[in-house]
Design brief:
By secondary structure, the protein is α+β, with helices and mostly antiparallel strands. The chain has a single domain, classed as Alpha-Beta Complex (tRNA-splicing ligase RtcB), CATH 3.90.1860. Helices cover 33% and strands 24% of the residues. Strands 7, 8, 9, 11, 15, 16, 18 and 19 form an 8-stranded mixed β-sheet that branches. The protein has a 7-stranded mixed β-sheet with strand order 1-2-3-4-5-13-12, with helices on both faces. Helix 5 crosses helix 8 and helix 8 packs antiparallel against helix 10. The structure holds guanosine-5'-monophosphate and manganese (II) ion (2 copies). The site of guanosine-5'-monophosphate has 23 residues, from strand 8 and strand 19.
């Protein structure tokens, strides 16, 4: 990217709307100098400029420091549209993996309790939790049950003994996005989802055992129940084939929308429809249903992890203190109230590879955390670190209540694969104290630590920009990958 990136504030850079004809607002990219250098090597900033052309976009087309190239919209992108100004909804602004997200589970185990059991633990997780592309799981639902599950969210499986009600209190939207309509989800999508709930999926998705290796904010860590050397589990997965199919179905339905509703798009992958059009409404209802499926998927993944821990340590998961800190989506669009130019309004916030980060006092932050802010779960990579942050006031002022979602890729999958050729990534990781098991060796190469930016750099930026603040840093001990 050779276009203009003008510094505004400590760690934000502006692409002025004069950069390209058709931009309705500026682009804002959050980054420091080090990350900016990497970002410039990618076409993602051009995607930020393209998104600025969407009808009804508010304030700016925003990108987080973990930005990298994606389908139409960059990963790490945030865009809010106002339905009253012809605002659109765009499936590409949510992503193929609707409600991809992260769930974080605490334990009352410490490093010394697990360090001699890591191989056994990772093996047990790997052989219990289904992973890999297209894998089906042990929970089978028929079409009617799958649609009910999409309407109810994790409550549906919790009512069947797969979790406890308090898990819902610590899930974004209590695991149930309102106004989901499972009947807007195609039979084909339902079929793909029916046997995949409770499976990890491929590549970037993972289940990781981590240890808290630094605490940055003792007060917030106390509220979150986190302390030094504590063992935790991080789960990253989404809505599997079901969400993918919902996205695909909608892209087909949206193809003629620009002509039909009279707007122009710089890139076909930015397909969108007015929020209040039949196409827009149908996608929104189906996307919400797929999001509820995603929460269920992570609920079932957590439940399997709880069972494995119970087996390996010979105590019940309750006894092991395996309580959910939080579950948060990072591929979703939601109707939220925000203040724009001093006026409160409801806007459609698209977060694609970006995490909600509501600050203290926000009514949607669970009561237990309301005095400090929403827990924000940030995976990094399987060799270095991951983070727990807390939502900060700056996010409401600058980014529609949003922060980053990870480290973000530094290398394309192809480049990482080439780089890993002939190497045994699992042995390299073991050398560094991380036990890794994956269903494909290529997968490990694509996902090797250096394929990602350093998550500590990304976290520096969102902390400095007051989008979310550092609470605790974790280092990986064991990981299973798709
Ligand atoms: P995405 O949702 O964009 O595919 O991935 C989110 C983030 O997860 C990535 O940007 C990366 O930082 C992080 N990530 C990917 N693989 C792993 C892993 O195996 N372990 C950890 N801790 N983080 C990972
Ligand atoms: Mn995903
Ligand atoms: Mn994801």
């Amino acid at each position: 990217f050779t276009g203009p990136l003008e510094r505004i504030g400590c760690c934000c850079h502006r692409i002025p709307k004069s950069y390209k004809a058709g931009m309705r607002v500026d682009g804002h990219i959050y980054a420091n100098d080090k990350l900016l250098e990497a970002i410039r090597k990618d076409q993602a900033p051009d995607q930020v400029a393209n998104v600025a052309m969407l009808p009804g976009i508010q304030v700016a087309s925003i990108a987080m420091p973990d930005i990298h190239w994606g389908y139409g919209f960059c990963i790490g992108g945030v865009c809010a549209t106002d339905p009253e100004e012809g605002g659109v909804i765009s499936p590409g602004g949510v992503g193929y993996d609707i409600n991809c997200g992260v769930r974080f589970i605490k334990t009352n185990l410490y490093l010394d309790d697990v360090k001699h059991h890591m191989k056994e633990l990772v093996k047990a997780l790997f052989y219990t939790v289904p992973s890999g592309a297209g894998r089906t799981g042990r929970y089978k639902f028929d079409a009617t049950e799958t649609r009910r599950l999409m309407g109810e969210g994790p409550r549906f499986v919790i009512d069947r003994g797969l979790g406890v009600a308090r898990d819902l209190d610590h899930t974004e939207a209590n695991g149930r996005i309102d106004d989901a309509d499972p009947h807007q989800v195609s039979d084909h999508a339902v079929k793909r989802g029916a046997e995949q709930c409770g499976t990890l999926g491929s590549g970037n998705h993972f289940l990781e055992v981590q240890v808290v290796d630094s605490v940055f904010d003792a007060d917030v860590a106390k509220v979150f129940g986190l302390e030094l050397n504590q063992i935790c589990v991080m789960i990253h997965s989404g809505s599997r084939g079901l969400g993918y199919q919902v996205c695909d179905d909608s892209l087909a339905a949206f193809r003629n929308c620009p002509t039909k509703y009279g707007f122009e798009l710089p890139d076909r992958q930015l397909a969108c429809a007015p929020v209040d059009s039949p196409e827009g409404r149908k996608y929104i209802a189906a996307m919400r249903a797929a999001a509820n499926y995603g929460f269920c998927n992570r609920q079932l993944l957590m439940q399997q992890a709880r069972e494995v821990f119970a087996g390996v340590f010979g105590r019940s998961w309750e006894d092991l203190g395996m309580e959910q800190l939080y579950d948060v989506a990072h591929n979703i669009a939601k109707l939220e109230e925000h203040t724009v130019d001093g006026k409160k309004k409801k806007v459609w916030v698209h977060r694609k590879g970006a995490t909600r980060a509501f600050p203290a006092g926000h009514p949607e932050v669970p009561e237990k955390y309301r005095a400090v802010g929403q827990p924000v779960i940030i995976p990094g990579d399987m060799g270095r670190a991951s983070w727990v942050l807390v939502g900060a006031p700056g996010a409401m002022e600058k980014t529609f209540g949003t922060t980053c979602h990870g480290a973000g890729r530094a290398m394309s999958r192809t480049a990482a694969l080439k780089d890993g050729a002939g190497r045994r990534i699992d042995r390299e990781l073991e050398h560094k104290g991380v036990i890794a098991m994956a269903s494909s060796r290529n997968g490990l190469a694509e996902e090797q630590p250096k394929a990602y930016k350093n998550v500590d750099d990304v976290v520096d930026v969102v902390h400095e920009a007051d989008l979310s603040r550092r609470v605790a840093r974790m280092r990986p001990l064991g990981v299973i990958k798709g």
